[in-house]
Amino acid sequence: MDATQERAARLRQEADLSREEAARLLAAHDGSLLDTLLDLERQGRISSGRGGTYSTRPGQAPPPSGDAQAPEPEPEHGEPGYARRLREGVRAILHILDPRVGNQVEIWRKGQLLTAVPLLILVIAVAAVFRIVAPLLILGLLLGCRYRCAGPDLDRKAVNDVLGAVADAIEDLKTGRKKRS
């Protein structure tokens, strides 16, 4: 059986067509089974499969599907839903920590960028030598440094506002002690 006959047989499985009509439609679409199936679907002669639709035409809504979508399986005792959310959260954290993504913590002082540290390196340093890195970060705040998160996942106003508020609170503490002295 040659390729054209195989495509015609496959087309006949998908749509209720005679051999002659299947061969004619394939010939009209230069032997492309996919184009033939898409054309039959647009004409409403076959139903669309389960799954998404795609159109290259801007603003075109997908055709209404007569097929009922299969309901999602119910989580048993809440565990699979919880496990799925936990897995998604872990993936998100690993994505944020991925050094190829480019997320980093920048250290600024007097409006100048001193350095930028990849987030993964900072997390490893804090976890490995917390008793050294944490005091150094606090010392940096006391010396007038400001920390800023940068990168495609961390360059958010809310994250940087929190870091700015911490730096402002340290500055207020320093100026409050100077006024009392």
At a glance:
The chain is mainly alpha-helical.
Give me the number of helical elements.
Answer: 7
Q: What class would the helix/strand composition place it in?
A: mainly alpha
Shape category: rod-shaped
Side-by-side strand order of the widest sheet: 2-1-3
Mean pLDDT: 79
Low-confidence stretches: none
Separation, N- and C-terminal Cα atoms: 97 Å
Backbone CA Rg? 30 Å
- What is the makeup of the main sheet? 3 strands, antiparallel
In percent, how much strand structure appears in the residues? 5-15%
Instruction: List how many beta strands DSSP finds.
Output: 3
The portion of residues assigned to helices is 40-55%
What is the N-to-C succession of helices and strands?
A: HHHHEEHHEH
Question: Tags for this entry?
Answer:
mainly alpha, 55% helix, 181 residues, 7 helices
Q: Can you describe this structure?
A:
The chain is mostly helical. Among the domains are: 41 residues; 77 residues, no CATH class. 55% of the residues lie in helices and 10% in strands. Strands 2-1-3 form a 3-stranded antiparallel sheet. A hairpin with a 2-residue loop joins β1 and β2. α1 packs across α2 and α5 crosses α6. The mean pLDDT is 79.
Set out the fold topology.
Blueprint: H1 3-14, H2 19-28, H3 33-43, H4 79-97, E1 104-109, E2 112-118, H5 119-128, H6 130-142, E3 145-150, H7 157-180
Helix pairs in contact: 1-2, 5-6
